[in-house]
Amino acid sequence: MDDNRNENYSELEKELAKLKSELEIQDELTSRFTSPVSSGYWQKRLEEEKMLWEKRIQSKEEEKKILESKLSQQDINLKNYEEKLKDLEKSFERELKDWQEKFRLKEADLLLEKNRILWEEKIKDAESETRQLLEKINTLNETVARLKDENISEKEMFQKTFAEEKRILSENINILQNSLSEMNRRFSEVEESFANEISRFKGEIQKRDETIESLAAHKERLNEENKSLKFNVESARMKSSEEIGSLKNDFLGAINDFNDYLSNQLSIVENLIAYRRTQRQLPCDEVSYYSKKISENAKSLETLTFEPKKKTKRKIVFIGEAKGFENISKKIGVPEVFHLNRFKVRDLKNIKPLAIITSDILVAKKVLKNLPFVPTIFVGILNRAVKNLPPVHIFTDLSDSASASEQIDAILESSIASEEHWLSLIPGKKKTRYILLPLLAVFLMAAAYFRTFFIPLERVREYHVPYSFPTSIALDTSYIWSCDWQSGSVYHHMLDDKLSLKRIYHFPENNFSAIAYDDGALYSVNPWSKKINRHIINESFSIIKTYATGELSLNGIAMVKGDVFATDMTKGLIYHGRLDEETGDFEILKSYKSPGPTPVGVWHDGKNLWSCDSSTNQIYLHKLDERLSVSVVYTLPDAFRKNFKISGFSGSGNTIWLSSEKLGKIFAVPKSRLIALLKR
Predict the structure, then answer these.
(1) Most buried among 23, 33, 52, 403, by the most CB within 10 A?
(2) Least confident of 183-197, 368-382, 432-446, 581-595
(3) CB 560 within 8 A of CB 519
């Protein structure tokens, strides 16, 4: 406003100066001008013009005064507006505080609404159970009425039957009374004979007393022998229990060895069938051959040991210079290593090797072209030409003989170039349709039978807990921890058959949504105060350190070698961060999109990261790569598909631990019971 006022003043001053200069020019012209006629007329006109301009100047000055008064009035109005703005700011601050208070009340209302919804779900479940019970009671009442009608007719029939049976029984009683009198007579006769027998027995008793004395002495000797026998039996029992434990371990070891052998044979058959499929060869007797081979090896399990029978020696061929052959044959540790200077299919047909080693790239190409079923091992410098070869096994250095021997042994174990089928695997000119798939299915069914027979499914364990909402769980080496977000408590359980409750730690002003164990301390998450708490595990279980989480709403947490993985179900994200000891903040290093819409927990098994989702009830196995990609998607067994919702997630070894707020239970699910939906 001051700038506009100054501009108006400057314009007025310029206009006044212009008028003065024009008047001065007119005065000068007037003084110089001498009219020959009517000089008074022009003088008069000049004065009139001068008066006119003076009036204009006067009007401009009046306008200037009016503008100055308006400007002063506007200054006063501006001051009034500033005071009103200050009053408005104060009122806005008061309204902001009121809205903040209303927001806090709204949050409390939402918490109450959440509790109400949970209780309504439980009430609905109880009402449905009540309806079912009432239906059962009505059914029972109808059954009772029907049975009552049936019992009336049966009662009449029973009365008739009872009268007939009563008549028969009275006849039997008369017969029995006659028999009783006859028996009394016989009893008197027997009594007389019994008295004679007693006298005879007394003599025999006297003789037997003498025999008993001799037997008592014999009994003492037998007692001593019995003690020694008991000692021998106890020592034999202990020895047998040790032998049983040893046999059990041997049996389990044999089963594991047999499973490894079975997996290897299955991979060989699959590779063999895939090869015949690509070459469009007619099927040979591979499936029956390997099935017979597996059956023969399975018989060795009767001796509680498993040693695969090897009918043929493992052969390997080196093609190249003799100097390289001597260097390699010492390092790979294969019993029969043959040397050929040049590649000849005829020589290889005679040897029938399981694999071929060469340091010549041209030889490797010939082998891959003419004998693609024989594994090719290239030893030499890894250059561009070698990288462009089809898939081969490449060793750039055999200085580590132990490692080279192990790798070559694994290649030979998985080779499909067995001596029995070597010649039939050579690519031919004739192309036929691939028909080995049914045989593979039979073979895989037999393998599944062996696995099912020797490895029974483990049982899912279910635990009832004495609190309503087991929100999250965590495990250490000897105990399991749980928290209840509604009661603000942490529960300490024993890892026994009943999951016995050891102690309860109550925090009235906290609502925990997640817990995790790491290095002798327990970490808890409070989404209301936006903090991660570190508890010292002792009698007080006090909070020794807190870390601010900002605006995050964490509901799952896992500690991984100093780092932290956490889930946020409101945003559908998984965070990778760390706890900054200096600033006391949770620092986010990276965030990932969760594979499910509502992630509720994470767990690290020492190698991979696991997460779970409460909406899908699915469990995800992640790779620790740049995208935290999912390698396997698991779902729970059929028993968990209804009326179940995951709220907490952890694990230990081969067991997945889950908690459900909806059911108020904790579950221990073996990994073998998880159902893999997708593998990548």
Answers:
(1) 23
(2) 432-446
(3) no
Distance CA 129, CA 166 (A): 51
Check whether 112 has a pLDDT greater than 70: yes
Closest CA to 565 of 622, 488, 482, 614: 622
Cβ-proximal residues to 626 (8 Å cutoff; 6+ apart), any chain: none
Cα–Cα–Cα angle for 545, 546, 552, rounded to 5 degrees: 160
The amino acid present at 401, given as its one-letter code, is S
Give the separation between CA 98 and CA 165, rounded to whole angstroms. 94
User: What tokens were used for 222?
Assistant: 């037998």
- Per-residue pLDDT tens for 309-357? 554 467 777 787 655 555 555 555 555 677 777 777 777 778 788 788 7
Can you give the pTM of this predicted structure?
0.39
Residues 6+ apart with CB under 8 A from 481: 473, 474, 475, 490, 491, 492, 493, 515, 517, 522
How close are the terminal C-alpha atoms of the chain, in Å? Answer: 72
User: What is the distance between the alpha carbons of residues 605 and 560, in angstroms, rounded to a whole number?
Assistant: 9
Left if phi > 0, otherwise alpha if psi is -120 to 50, otherwise beta: which for 653?
left
Please list the residues that pair with 126 across neighbouring strands. none
What is the SS3 string spanning 630-651? EEEEEECCHHHCCCCCCCEEEE
Average pLDDT of the residues in 422-427: 77
Q: Where are the beta strands (DSSP E) in 258-354?
A: 315-319, 336-340
Per-residue pLDDT at 452: 47
